[in-house]
Each structure stands twice: as structure tokens, then as C-alpha cells.
Design goal:
binds alpha-D-galactopyranose
């Protein structure tokens, strides 16, 4: 905790903190630099009694650090990222950020809604990716610490004006992070619009259950609760097909080492340069919170269960990491040093009538929850 920290909890908590006693269930705040436009950014720390601690900044609603105990109770930071704001303000592959308005790709940066064509920046040629040139990952959010019933939380809010990055409608977005006492990082996304639009919010954390920067993730055991995935073309746009995973490298229905089939001679693996695909989650009732994936590191014993109300999961094996990003503590993030489990609607849904709808209309309430829950085995 920095010297300039602000305590949001009860006087007792604050006194305990000042006395250097470990405090759980608290939210503290400290400065995290200033943007080029002169806006002050803060780092909020949420902690619980089980030794888990999450740090979030109000730039990009980014999860900057996530400390989770291993099988011996030893904590490590399991998400990739930077020590300072400069890293996040510069170009980087969305470490820890809330991605919006549209997570993943929209073909050729174009879609039609109610007969009107909308044009987005093709920031991942020839497609639009992750919200555009200045997506939600590069915005300053308004943060409110939440003390509530003991589970510390942070509410982040943003107003995206009509026409922002080419998307129609004024959109009001709230993302609430809560650290539960059973070691879950819960993310509640909410939004409303004043004109018809499309929306697909997700979190783009890169995990390494052995600790950020501590080697690759190829030995992690992965289970994905999906018996179909959405194959893509060479520009990573879904073809529209929902293809069975059975008999392909995409079969994660039983736990297998992430790297086992990652170099197979398979067209989809080649297009993705590994795994960079949306899985169609098995769900009896759409919109319910169910298990999407389970990842286990035999090395550290850490387990991450991903629960979501979303219909899809983009499983990305960090294929574009190449040692360019120097992260926290000076550690360099080499090829496949982290993986993402981006809970979402399917990529390019605005152009895919067969996919679940991503249209949000005035009067609709966008509300969706994802939980990353940690344990040991
Ligand atoms: C998503 C995409 C990937 C890549 C990363 C960010 O996971 O699907 O292709 O763009 O984001 O580098």
C-alpha cells in the first residue's frame, strides 16, 4: 500500500491499516499516474480473508494484478500487465482490460442495423477488433469503491457518446468487480443505450497460473465446456458454421495439456497460429451462470474455474506474445506466456444472423456476469 493510500472502509479498518496490521475486505486507493490529457488515474486494491488480492485501475477498467495462493498458500500474481500507466497507455495486447464496445472482430469493420450501415475503424486489417482505435481499454472510467456486506468491490462507469468509434447510440456502461470470500473475481457488466446499437463486453486478462512471467502456459490442463466451436477464415472471422470439436485439436471436453495439440497440422490451428477461437458453451438455459472452463496448473496447484452467463468463450493461447512486452517486475512476456478466456457473444455476430443477437435497443437492459474462481488441487 502506498503512502498516499486512501482508506474507504470503517474507521477500525483504517486504524488497523495505519498500524500496519493486515486488513481483509478492504478497498484502498493510491495514485497510478496521469494520462497524456492530464487525468489522474488511481489503483484500487481489493482483498479478502483467503489471501486473494486484486488491483484494478480506472484506466481501461484494467485488472492490473491478481494475487492468488498456490497449493502451499504462497501467493503469486497470475495476470500479465505493467507496473506503470505508461505501459497501459501505449499499444499493448489488451492486458487485463475491459474490451468494448465489441469484443473480438467485426468483418471489414462494417455492419447493418435496422437497414442502416455503420462503418468502424479496421484496426486489425481487414477487420475491426476490440472496439476500435480508442476502445474502452483506453478510456478513463469513473470509479466508486464498494464496501457493502464485506465483499469488497469496485464500480466503474463510462459514457460512450453516440458515434464513438463508429458505433451508434449513447451508451452508458457499468462494470462492477467484486472479490468474493470464496476467491472469486466476479465481473458484472451492465449497459443501456438511447439508440439501437451492438454490444459485446469482455475482460481480456492474460492468465498464467504459475505467476505472470514465469514461463509458458503449455503445461496447464484445460477443460472447456463446449462440444462445438466457431471455425474462422484466414482473417479470423467466423464462417458461420458451428463445428463439433470431437476428433479435432479443439476437443477440450476432458482436461488436456493446453499445448498437447497446439502444433497439429490443422487448418484452424494454422489460421489462429494456435488457439484463438470462440467456443460455443454448453448451456441448457441461455443466459444462466454455468461453468465455461477449468484450468489447472499441476506445477503450482492453482485452479481457475470460469463461470459465465455468456454463450461463448474466446480461448486465446497468447500466440501474438513475442517478447516485445516487458511486464511487471521487468519480466518479458514471451510466446504463449499467458492465455485468455474471454467470455463473450460470438465474433462478428452483427453480420451473422445465425448467432445469438448482440443488438441492444433503448429500454433494454444489458446485464451479464462472469466469475473467475480460484482454488487449489
Ligand atoms: C483476441 C483476439 C486475438 C488477438 C488478441 C489480442 O484474443 O482474438 O486474435 O487480437 O485478442 O492480441
Amino acid at each position: 500500500m502506498g503512502k498516499a493510500s486512501v482508506c474507504f472502509m470503517t474507521a477500525l479498518f483504517c486504524l488497523a491499516m495505519a498500524a500496519g496490521m493486515p486488513v481483509h475486505g478492504a478497498v484502498t486507493m493510491e495514485p497510478f499516474g496521469t494520462t497524456a490529457e492530464g487525468q489522474a488515474i488511481s489503483l484500487y486494491t481489493l482483498s479478502n480473508a483467503k489471501g486473494m488480492e486484486v488491483k484494478i485501475i480506472n484506466f481501461g477498467a484494467i485488472v492490473q494484478s491478481l494475487k492468488v495462493p498456490d497449493r502451499d498458500g504462497k501467493p503469486a500474481d497470475v495476470v500479465l500487465g505493467f507496473d506503470t500507466l505508461d505501459g497501459y497507455a501505449a499499444e499493448h495486447p489488451y492486458f487485463g482490460a475491459v474490451v468494448g464496445r465489441y469484443g473480438n472482430r467485426i468483418a471489414k469493420g462494417k455492419f447493418s442495423l435496422d437497414g442502416k450501415e455503420h462503418t468502424l475503424a479496421t484496426n486489425n486489417p481487414p477487420n475491426a477488433l476490440h472496439g476500435g482505435l480508442k476502445g474502452f481499454d483506453k478510456q478513463v472510467w469513473t470509479a466508486t469503491p464498494l464496501e457493502g456486506d464485506g465483499a469488497p468491490g469496485l464500480r466503474l462507469q463510462l459514457v460512450s457518446p453516440d458515434g464513438d468509434q463508429g458505433y451508434p447510440g449513447t451508451l452508458t456502461v457499468t462494470v462492477t468487480y467484486t472479490l468474493t470470500d470464496d476467491n472469486g473475481l466476479e465481473i458484472q457488466y451492465e449497459a443501456a443505450t438511447d439508440a439501437p446499437t451492438v454490444l459485446n463486453l469482455t475482460n481480456h486478462s492474460y492468465f498464467n497460473l504459475n505467476g505472470a512471467g514465469n514461463g509458458d502456459i503449455l503445461g496447464h490442463l484445460v477443460m472447456i465446456n463446449a462440444d462445438r466451436f466457431t471455425p474462422v477464415d484466414e482473417t479470423l472471422i467466423p464462417t458461420g458454421e458451428l463445428r463439433p470439436v470431437a476428433g479435432t485439436p479443439f476437443d477440450f471436453t476432458s482436461p488436456k495439456a493446453l499445448g498437447r495439440d497446439i502444433n497439429q497440422d490443422d487448418e484452424q490451428i494454422k489460421y489462429g497460429l494456435g488457439y484463438d477461437h470462440n467456443f460455443v458453451l454448453k448451456k441448457e438455459t441461455p443466459g444462466t451462470l454455468t461453468l465455461a472452463a477449468r484450468v489447472h496448473s499441476p506445477e503450482s496447484g492453482r485452479v481457475m474455474d470460469v463461470f459465465t452467463e455468456e454463450p461463448g468463450l474466446q480461448f486465446y493461447s497468447g500466440n501474438f506474445l513475442d517478447g516485445t512486452n516487458k511486464g511487471k517486475g521487468g519480466k518479458v512476456y514471451q510466446h504463449r506466456f499467458g492465455f485468455c478466456m474471454e467470455t463473450q457473444h460470438f465474433p462478428d455476430s452483427p453480420n451473422q444472423p445465425g448467432f445469438p443477437s448482440v443488438v441492444l435497443r433503448p429500454g433494454d437492459k444489458y446485464a451479464t456476469k462472469t466469475v473467475y474462481k480460484f482454488s487449489v488441487e
